[in-house]
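As a warm-up, study this chain.
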Amino acid sequence: MSGASSDRLVVGLQPVREAIRRHGSALREVLIDEKASPKLEALARFATDQAVPRVQRVRRAELDRLSQGVVHQGVVTHAPALELLELATLAEDPALVALVLDSIQDPHNFGAVVRSAVALGGAAVVWGAHASAPLTPATFRASAGAIEHARLCRVPSLSHAVAELAQSVQVVGLDAQAPVRLADLDLKGPTALVLGGEGEGLGRAVRRSCTQLASLGGMASVDSLNVSVAAGIALYEVLRQRVKSST
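Now compare it with the structure written out below.
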């Protein structure tokens, strides 16, 4: 595993709460608005209970400065680097479910996809180092803290990564025009679902590397659904098939 950065700024009540839950005493500090608030008081107690070394009340102006324009709700923290998995590790997982994000540049969409991935079966999230939303406080906040619990994999070249996964994993590109419906595919084996960017959809090289293209069936285009909604629908279908096969 490798870290995304040496230190991450996390802002917002739920993202900071999940950072505390995940990292506890590994957090350097939690800074909380000095203005009284039941929610902030509860968060301060939670941080203390989880052995955060320093819980400090500060002026809102200081939080505004640190939060870099992201809505902080009166709390920020600096968390350890996110752990990033190697692609080869994911490819070896016989029960793999992964979301592969092709040029998802909106941090809110990226964060919402991560939230769906964690909520629906702990799916891994794979994305390219270029032309993708960065791991920023806005992304962490959009995930509502789910990114602290996510399985993440950032790759140098997404098309190469998709081609590598396709050697051992069913790689399904979501395409509204595909004649095959996702629900008609067998998704019980290791599967990666590829979602295209907000504007252009699946890139040509990534599309060619998929083992199968499929539509969500009876839905509008993935883009018009919003990529995070499409991800949730696709993940639900994978889980539906797997739960059905285990009963």
